[in-house]
């Protein structure tokens, strides 16, 4: 976003509360115009709105040709106001004249006004959308630098000019005090260089200049995709750049400053053509409910959560049969860790007939720990719409296995003909257990052998080996172990179980330990930090769905990542083994309040 970060927000005086503000804003004269890939709601003139949509469609075609990405999953919504006064309640900070605002079901680009002069700013925000949908996770300098670089694109015959100098930024780079490049590369979302008005310009200016050099200059551009991939994967910016180009950041900085003063800092032509939208775009009065809803969604920011809640509740009062406010409330509840309320709002939207794929996926996952039958119904609804969605098939099969319906699980997995390397281990694990439960030891062995062969982690290799040993040692018809389910996305949840999961083979009584639960560590793996008489100890949670939680009321226990208010616990664990240095054990049972 142009000079925007969620940590930097201007306080807004809500004279009559968010409900009054958002619902009164809908009284303005709103019109709706759509193209194949965008829909625009605006109080500005229809003619400038049409020009804006034409340009967005052209820019989208450019990214589709050059980057093989349109940055779009569903139609993007553009909200454009006619005046600064109208825009002011939705302005995220004192600088932003436009911004990108993703929500659960829509991508919004919000503009203070329309007109050709807004195109660079609007395209800057669209680049953020493209980056997000491409799956990249960039630090501020790279995210904003890319957005500024491509905000200047212009058609030149059969080519597109990229990298035209931005006069204000170029002059600032030549005249203002230079900030060490290492400081710019190290600046995160909370840095003053991204949040304070008198410092943010340096990050935008130098970030734009560095991206310009890395992406467009002949000396650097060949390895720039490698740099982006490495940074997105979590490598520090300075390390990724130094490794790719074989020189320290200090040398890169010297070359950047020479680049600014040389003849190479200029745009380049890229073979591509901005397609024109030939059909006449007709403006129509916008639906009143839709305007109220989108204004509520645009205003849904962390600092305004309770006001936003009141707005959604007001919409439910006015439109009790519409599902969208319930879904928006569910996601707001989920963000605030109000899991039971979120589940209730998802249930109401489902009852009213909403069958949106994202809602079904999240509602189904949320119901797994409390109502397996409802979760099964929800996943079946999702697969009816998206039969090729493998993650939903595996989630449903896992539910069916836990309900001892192995044949149903095999039927669910039967349509799967191809699988990615990332999904193959879980699929083979489910097939091994399902076939074992169904009594087909030959197919169970074949799946387990394939799983063992491709296993990339020691624990996966051990689990596959355990299944094979179980098949060899047990009699035909012997009960098989419950499947080892992967952790779902979203807030980690420890599910209560009435009995420990079945084991592949008998195990001796586990060692136990008493202490205080002081931290819940999230990341690639989940783990619990305990304060004991012998100091702090770290216990790994291999699979949350197989963890036995006792000694506390309720069906589930939701935990936020990070330090915890110290509570007394007693755990049972298995030895970590030599392949897990730094891990004190594998957590199997946790008793709260003991």
Number of beta-strand segments:
17
| Class by SSE composition | alpha+beta
- Averaging pLDDT over every residue, what do you get? 81
At the fold tier of CATH, the topology name of the largest domain is Glutaredoxin
% residues in beta strands: 15-25%
Helix content: 40-55%
The largest sheet, given as strand count, sense and whether it forms a barrel, is: 6 strands, mixed
Unreliable segments of 5+ consecutive residues = 1-26, 478-509, 551-556
- Give the oligomeric state of the chains in this entry, treating copies of one chain as homo and distinct chains as hetero: single chain
Main β-sheet, spatial strand arrangement: 4-5-3-2-1-9
CATH architecture of the largest domain: 3-Layer(aba) Sandwich
What's the Cα radius of gyration? Answer: 27 Å
Distance between termini? 49 Å
CATH class of the largest domain: Alpha Beta
**How many separate domains?**
4
Specify the number of helices. Answer: 23
């Amino acid at each position: 976003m142009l000079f925007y970060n969620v940590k930097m927000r201007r306080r807004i005086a809500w004279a009559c509360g968010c409900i009054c503000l958002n619902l009164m804003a809908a009284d303005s004269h709103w019109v709706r115009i759509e193209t194949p890939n965008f829909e625009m709601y605006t109080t500005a003139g229809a003619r400038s709105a049409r020009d804006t949509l034409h340009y967005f469609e052209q820019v989208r075609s450019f990214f589709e040709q050059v980057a093989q990405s349109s940055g779009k999953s569903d139609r993007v919504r553009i909200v454009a106001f006619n005046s600064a006064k109208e825009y002011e309640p939705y302005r995220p900070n004192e600088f932003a004249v436009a911004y990108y605002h993703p929500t659960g079901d829509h991508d919004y680009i919000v503009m203070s006004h329309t007109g050709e002069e807004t195109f660079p700013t609007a395209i800057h925000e669209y680049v953020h959308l493209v980056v997000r949908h491409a799956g990249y996770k960039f630090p501020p300098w790279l995210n904003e630098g890319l957005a500024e670089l491509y905000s200047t694109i212009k058609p030149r015959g059969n080519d597109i000019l990229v990298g035209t100098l931005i006069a204000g930024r170029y002059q600032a780079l030549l005249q203002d005090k230079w900030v060490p490049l290492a400081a710019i590369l190290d600046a995160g979302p909370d840095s003053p260089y991204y949040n304070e008005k008198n410092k943010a310009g340096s990050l935008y200016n130098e970030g734009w200049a560095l991206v310009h050099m890395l992406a467009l200059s002949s000396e650097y551009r060949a390895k720039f995709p490698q740099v982006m991939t490495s940074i997105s994967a979590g490598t520090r910016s300075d390390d990724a750049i130094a490794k790719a180009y074989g020189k320290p950041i200090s040398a890169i900085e010297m070359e950047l400053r020479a680049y600014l003063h040389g003849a190479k800092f200029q745009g380049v032509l890229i073979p591509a053509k901005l397609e024109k939208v030939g059909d006449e775009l007709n403006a129509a009065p916008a639906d009143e409910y839709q305007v109220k809803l989108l204004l509520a969604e645009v205003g849904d920011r962390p600092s305004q959560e309770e006001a936003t809640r009141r707005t959604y509740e007001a919409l439910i009062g006015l439109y009790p049969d519409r599902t969208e406010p319930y879904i928006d409330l569910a996601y707001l509840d989920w963000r605030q860790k109000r899991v039971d309320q979120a589940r209730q709002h998802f249930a109401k939207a489902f009852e009213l007939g909403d069958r949106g794929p994202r809602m079904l996926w999240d509602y189904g996952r949320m119901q797994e720990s409390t109502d397996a039958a409802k979760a099964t119904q929800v996943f079946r609804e999702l697969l009816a719409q998206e039969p090729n969605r493998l993650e939903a098939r595996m989630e449903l099969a896992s539910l069916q296995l836990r309900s001892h319906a192995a044949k149903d699980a095999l039927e669910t997995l039967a349509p799967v003909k191809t699988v990615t390397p990332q999904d193959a281990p879980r699929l083979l694990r489910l097939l091994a257990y399902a076939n074992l439960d169904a009594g087909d030891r030959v197919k169970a062995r074949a799946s387990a052998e394939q799983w063992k062969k491709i296993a990339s982690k020691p624990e996966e290799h051990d689990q596959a080996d355990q299944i094979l040993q179980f098949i060899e040692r047990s009699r035909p018809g012997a009960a098989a172990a419950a499947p080892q389910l992967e952790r779902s996305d979203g807030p980690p949840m420890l599910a209560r179980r009435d009995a420990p999961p079945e084991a592949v083979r008998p195990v001796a009584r586990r060692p136990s330990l008493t202490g205080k639960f002081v931290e819940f560590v999230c990341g690639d793996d989940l783990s619990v930090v305990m304060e004991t008489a012998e100091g702090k100890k770290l216990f790994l949670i291999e699979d949350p769905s197989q963890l036995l939680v006792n000694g506390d009321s309720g069906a589930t226990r939701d935990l936020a990542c990070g330090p915890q208010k110290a509570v007394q616990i007693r755990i049972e664990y298995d030895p970590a083994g030599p392949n897990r240095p730094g891990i004190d054990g594998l957590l199997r049972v946790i008793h709260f309040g003991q």
